[in-house]
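_Per-residue structure_
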Amino acid sequence: MHKIEWLENGLENISGFYFGGVNAGFKKDANDLGFIRSDEAVDVSAVFTQNRFKAAPIRHFLRYERDFKTNFILLNSKNANAMTGDDGVADIDEIFANLSQNLKLINPIMSSTGVIGYRLKKDKIISAARNFNLNSRDSNAVVTAIMTTDSFKKELACKITLENGECFKIAAICKGAGMINPCLATMLCFVLTDANIPKADMDELLELSAQQSFNAVSVDGDTSTNDTLMLLASKTSGVYDKNAFKAGLDLITKKLALMLVKDGEGSTKVVEFEVKNALNLEEAQKAAKALSNSLLVKTAIFGEDPNWGRIASTIGASGVKCDENELVIHYDDVLVYDKNHKELDEIREQKAHEVMKKPSYKISCDLRAGDAKFSAFGCDLGHKYVSINADYRS
């Protein structure tokens, strides 16, 4: 058994790391350049976007040998350094070559978010990076440095205490508010831990955690070029339990993923789309993600329209095994459809409408075709998407 407690101040709970941020002049009055560093090189695991046009920072990362260690991550906002070709990767090399004159860098990593298609302003980044307080442990400074269209900062930390009283901690910062689709969200997320976790477990558990969190949310159905989820371990606690670590990591990534949905550009509601008793897990995921991605469903959520037909139609169009005589749909605990209740009477329609007024609720779809279950999370798009957004962010 283990106990999980929430902590304040994000990354500051994790020993062995330093972090902070400065203004390089890309934002008017806020940090736009940040760092995470460690005295010793540490293990790092990562999950990246499924977009074929991977941004230069990801391409730079993937040049390293498998299971490399790092002691430095440079973070910037306002410029994604995406669709910049080999020049974009070379720009990162040049930045690190300059920084290495005053700082011992071991396999440094860069991660960027912002507008696609523009090369980095290297001189401004190099100059501003010289102002880093490399002994800083300011979680707020680094999380604000990666915020773009976010309306609030996203950071979490928890302490996991084992049955014998020993404990370790996990903390994370995240950004993301648009271009979010179940192939990671449009996000940068950095998870730090002092757990004495083996590298193989880092890789395994991070991938599994991504599937139930960042790969299970949708805002607008687009997949970014820069999506990045990283886990770094200082191992300074000397404590580790695989099941307890998985529970803590899954809890943090799921909460952060739901923050992304809540902060979706213009969204007003967060909805869980639960598909249960599907033929298999693949079909449960397919149907749930179809619901979370459907613009037809999103407009119904925004309009608070309890018309179950949009839900049923989307499930049928997803291609999974389903039968209209077996399907059962609930909005929270309100039955809106089964074979004996195909028309909403006035009472059930009013109850369903009241559910849809809430800022968050669950739409549960029982396919009665097997025993697999999966939940995806989505939202309405809200008023901001009435007009075309010409800013292609990542």
